[in-house]
Amino acid sequence: MRLEKHHNILIVGLGLLGGSYAMALSRRGYPVSAITLEQSSVDYAMNKGLIRYGTTEVEPDLIAKADLIIFALYPHTFIEWMEQHGHLLTSGTIVTDVTGVKGSIIPRVKALLPDGVEYIAAHPMAGREVGGVENADDRIFYGANYLVVPTEDNTPDAIELCEDLGWTLGFRTVSQLSPERHDEMIGFLSQLTHCIAVSLMCAKDDPELVRYTGDSFRDLTRIARINDAMWSELFLENREVLLGEMDRFRDTFERLYATVRDGDRDQMREMMRISTARRALFDKP
To answer: Would the pTM of this model clear 0.85, i.e. be above it?
Structure first.
């Protein structure tokens, strides 16, 4: 099943990602509506043409008419919304999301779905250090990766629709992986990197640093400007995986520490050569 122009799309949560989804889909002619907390977000999205209709109320008719509902919410808010309003979803509706953890979320959401409603999890690997619909920008998807996270319960039609959504949004790659593999990859590629950036910024309290730094420090700590409410929740939802990746990083850092302490330049250079070769794979064409 492909995403068609006659499909009614409802986005729940008009923050940065929800707003950017709305921008990308509306630009391509899809009918997009939204439910979000703040009337100011609705007004902004309507004025900018990001959505055709928006509301701060959970309107049963709006939910019933949706063919595809995209939940752009924090994990706990997604669960709470489903607990309170999930019964309003109608058979034939497909639900997807943007949450950064899957193993602890997917079974809880599926348990709250009415019969005939299918949830296919997804994770757009894109974002910015600022939030809110006023910062929405569908260019964040260009060159980025989109992850589809099916389980054995998902139908081929729902998986195809979710993949097509990723391509429609403008992502460079669309990949499938299991919930377990997703959380492992995210634990290393996303959560651990944020841990490192936060730790680095907390390691030295010197107001003069900003006067002397070069681009390397700025690049390495860009993601240290962090949404503490969201990221602390993601860390704890993926606690065991993240702790394992933190242990792996600590062991590797201690190996590098030892090469400096012991003056082992050969081993130091070997680690640098490995680093250089692996990093080259990430360079975008």
So the answer is: yes
Closest CA to 140 of 155, 150, 129, 149: 129
111 to 79, 97, 157: CA distances (angstroms): 10, 16, 21
d(CA 57, CA 68): 18
Backbone CA torsion sign across 279, 282, 283, 285: positive
Q: How far apart are CA 204 and CA 158, in angstroms?
A: 49
Alpha helices in 170-192 (DSSP H): 179-186
Tokens representing 106 are 């997917």
Question: pLDDT per position in the chain (285 positions), as tens?
Answer: 888 888 899 999 999 999 999 999 999 999 999 999 999 999 999 999 999 999 999 999 999 999 999 999 999 999 999 999 999 999 999 999 999 999 999 999 999 999 999 999 999 999 887 889 999 999 999 989 999 999 999 999 999 999 999 999 999 999 999 999 999 999 999 999 999 999 999 999 999 998 999 899 999 999 999 999 999 999 999 999 999 999 999 999 999 999 999 999 999 999 999 999 999 998 866
Q: For residues 147 and 178, what is the distance between their CA atoms, to the nearest angstrom?
A: 10
Give the closest residue to 195 by CA, choosing from 145, 157, 245, 150: 245
